[in-house]
Structure formats: C-alpha cells, structure tokens
Structure prediction request, 140 residues.
Amino acid sequence: MNAAFGSNDWREQKIRDWLLLILRFAVTREPRDRSAVFAMADELDALGVRWRPAAPRFFVTTAGEVCDAILGVSENANMVLRTHIARIDDPRMRGAFAAAVDLQRQPVNCHSQPIEEPRRQNAAVNRREALDSWRGMPKK
Prediction:
C-alpha cells in the first residue's frame, strides 16, 4: 500500500466520523454532541495545514449551518439540511440523517431538489400485468 492511499483512507475515515457526529447531534441535540461536531470540524479544517487558519473554513462553517438547521434556528433550515444530505455519499448514513431530521419522505438528488416519488400500483394491477405477460405463449 502506498503512503498517499493510506493518507486518503485516514482522511475519509475522519470525514465519516464527522458525519456520524452530526448524525448523533441530530438524534440527541445535546450540547456536548454539538461541541464534538465542532471539534472534529476544526480538526478537519486544520488537516495538512501547519498553522490554524484565522477564519473558519468549510467544515466549521458547514457544521455551524447544519447544527443550526437541526435546531431550527436557521431561516433556510430545510435547504441547508437537504444540501447536507445531498453531500453524503453513503446511502445508509444519508437515510439515517434524513430520518433523524424528519426529511425521509422527500428524497433529494444531487442538486438538492426534491425527487418525485414513483407511483405505486396496487396488487390487483400487478397480478393482471403478470398474467398478461404470459398471454400468447404456447401451452404445453
């Protein structure tokens, strides 16, 4: 294994840990869990930098926006939460977070727009279509 590959795996794991901390905060809404989200965000922003940046960067800014949206203190909470969900690659974590913030009923695509739910047919229509697919086949 080369060193660069191992380094990327480590960073990916740190980001996954950060996403799990945000999920935990979404479930518990405890101040200590919010603090853990910010601590990990600060660590992620400092990765690869020899000095601490003076202004917050991506992870700290995103953590603040998402945590405020979870608490409902943000004007555009719904949009912030949908944007955050769209950034999550893991479908299980994305679903868990959506459920934790009660957005599971409206899936999102990569552009943070609601996706129309597919129409479902009832069982009688499904049976009829299954029988129709055999129509015209030779009988043995």
